[in-house]
Write a structure and sequence with these properties.
Length: 186
Amino acid sequence: MTPVTLLFLAVSMSADAFAASISKGAELKRPRFHHALGIGLVFGIIEAITPLLGWVAGVASQRFVQAWDHWVAFTLLSAIGLHMMYAALKKEDKIEHRKQTLWLLVLTAIATSLDAMAVGASLAFIDADIIATSLAIGLATTVMTSIGTLLGHKFGQFVGHWAELIGGIVLIGIGVMVLIQHTGIL
């Protein structure tokens, strides 16, 4: 995986967490930097762990699907990308105000990182450097959710939809690149 592809993957995997953090920032009214960084770290750590878990599952099943692993990677990445695009287009414009708790934050971070687990599984099939990928995803998520939290009270309902939509498109693009590289179509 090239550094540019890794960057695009990390940013696209962070898009749903970014969208969620905008909502969190809107709920906080005037989030402070340390609050935003704390939210970013929770999301980033969880988002960095889940691709590792997915990768382990992918490696365990790799010998069973080795002949068509590129199709598995393409299908998983495309399905996740399509789901992100669908979720971005179906979200309501209003922001729901809830009391902030650590458990709610962790549950939100886990929910937004499940796609990273599936991506981790697909990366096992293309022999990607999972440590570098997980660290890149975790760092991108920490930065993007911290920024999203700080911007949430100003841009809340406008930015989140676009971030998730673009992230979905990028994931589909990466899936297509994997398919092209392994099948030699172009």
